[in-house]
Amino acid sequence: MDEPVKTMSTTVEALPARARFSLRATEADAAAAGEALAVPLGATIGEIAVAGDRRSLRLGPDEWVVVAPLEDAAPMAGAFAASGIAGSLVEISNREVSFAVSGPAAEDLLAHGCPRDLSRMAPGRGARTVFDGLSVVLWHVEDGFEVDVWRSYAPFLEALLTAAQRELAVTV
Amino acid sequence: MLLIHCPYCDETLPEAEFTYAGEAHIVRPDPSVSDETWRDFLYIRSNPKGPHAERWRHAHGCARYFNAIRDTVSDRVLVTYKAGEPRPAIAGEHGQ
């Protein structure tokens, strides 16, 4: 990915690699799983929970995505395995890449491909949703949105985002 | 575009996040049944003009299957409910 693209109203940039896990666990095991991974797990679907530089997003009734610094991947997987929880923790660090979309027109930019009403997705909320046919995970974090997408689709998504940016730069 | 309520996410979301997955409440028979019963299970579906129980999947969201009753005349989704729950009663021949 090339230089980050910036305009008056939006910034799109690829984020550095990070550790990611797909966690599947029942409601009853969630607290223990969170303890083992040293990350809180949101109680409602769409909730982002943060502890230091680790955070989680609840995607469904029994599914969370957990991100952490890259060097934490092995210790977290080890701690989960040692905990004996009857759940599934799959490392997906290499499967996905993330883009940061920020700036005052970030919502307008994402509205080019996402059918959700993003004004109703407050900071601290997120979801797996669709962007122009791609399955993406949206995080509304403090300083804008982060978009996770499968690695092989990343050039396509980046092209879509930068095309939308050019359009916004003309119209805003 | 249809707006569909996901009973797991408890949010009403655009149809683009969902995929249709056939008629709901089709019970798989015991494998020892007659060929005719097995054929009916595999291929015979109801095709009502009015409320129709369907399976949908929140494929681009929480990934869960759930059931919906959709009026095939108005294309309006009358109610959605979690997989495994009984079909709720719908008042009237066609949804309002």
Rg of Cα set of chain B: 15 Å
Largest interface comes to: A-B, 13 and 14 residues
CATH architecture classification name of chain B? 2-Layer Sandwich
> Which fold name corresponds to the CATH topology of the largest domain in chain A?
Alpha-Beta Plaits
Number of strands of chain B: 6
> Mind summarizing the main beta sheet of chain B?
4 strands, antiparallel
Mean pLDDT of chain B: 92
- The CATH topology of chain B turns out to be Folate-binding fold
Name the poorly predicted regions of chain B. none
Distance between the first and last residues' Cα of chain A: 26 Å
Report the CATH C-level class of chain B: Alpha Beta
Look at the structure and give the CATH class of the largest domain in chain A: Alpha Beta
Overall tally of structural domains of chain A: 2
Number of domains of chain B: 1
Q: Low-confidence stretches of chain A at least 5 residues in length (pLDDT < 50)?
A: none
Q: Please estimate the helix content of chain B.
A: under 10%
Summed up:
The complex is a heterodimer of chains A (172) and B (96). Chain A has four helices and eleven strands; from the N terminus they run E-E-E-H-E-E-E-H-E-E-H-E-E-E-H.
Descriptive notes:
Chain B: It comes from Acuticoccus sediminis. Chain B: This is Sarcosine oxidase subunit delta. Chain B: InterPro entries: SoxD, SoxD_sf. Chain B: GO terms for molecular function: sarcosine oxidase activity. The complex is a heterodimer of chains A (172) and B (96). Chain A has 172 residues and is of the alpha+beta class. Chain A is built from 4 helices and 11 strands. In chain A, the strands form 2 sheets. A 6-stranded antiparallel β-sheet of chain A has the order 1-2-8-11-10-9. In chain A, β10 (134-141) and β11 form a beta hairpin. Chain A starts with a strand and ends with a helix. The relative contact order of chain A is 0.21. The mean pLDDT of chain A is 93. Chain B is mainly beta and 96 residues long. Chain B has one domain (3-82): Folate-binding fold, CATH 3.30.2270.10. A 4-stranded antiparallel β-sheet of chain B has the order 3-4-5-6, with no helix packed on it. Chain B is globular. The two termini of chain B are 18 Å apart.
